[in-house]
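Hey, I was hoping to borrow your eyes for a little while. No rush at all, and the record is pasted right below:
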Amino acid sequence: MTTRLRRIAGNSITHVAFAFCAMGGWAMFANRDYPPGRFLLAGLVQGALSACLTLFLKTAVEQLSRRMNGTQALWAPPLIACLASSAILATIHALSGTPEILKTIALPLAVSTSYAAIYNYSLYRKGSGHDRNR
C-alpha cells in the first residue's frame, strides 16, 4: 500500500465519510418500501449518527477500559458501548419517524458492537488485562 493510500485509509475523515455513506445507504435500503421522503430521511439520520458514533466509539472504549480491572475490563466497555449506541440510535430514529427502526439499526449496531469488542480486546491484551485481575 502506498504512503498516500495508507494516510487516506487511516484518516478519521475517511472513516466518518465511509460510516455516513455505508450505514446511511443501509438505512435507505431498510426503509425502501416507504415513500422517498421517509427512506431518505432515515438514511440521512443514520448516516449522521454513524458518523458521530464512529468519532466517539473509539474514545469511549478507551476511557471505559482504563477505568476497569480484571475480567470486567474485558466485557464491560463493549457492552456499555452497545447499550449506549442502541439507546441513541433507537431514540433518534423514533423521534425522526423512521418507519423500520429495528431493521435500520441492526446492521450499524452489529458493526459498532463488533468493532468495540475487538478493539477493547486489543486494549485488554496490550494493557496486560491478565495482570489486572486484582
About this structure: The chain has a mean pLDDT of 91. Helices lie at 3-10, 12-30, 36-66, 72-96, 101-126. DSSP finds five helices and no strands in the chain.
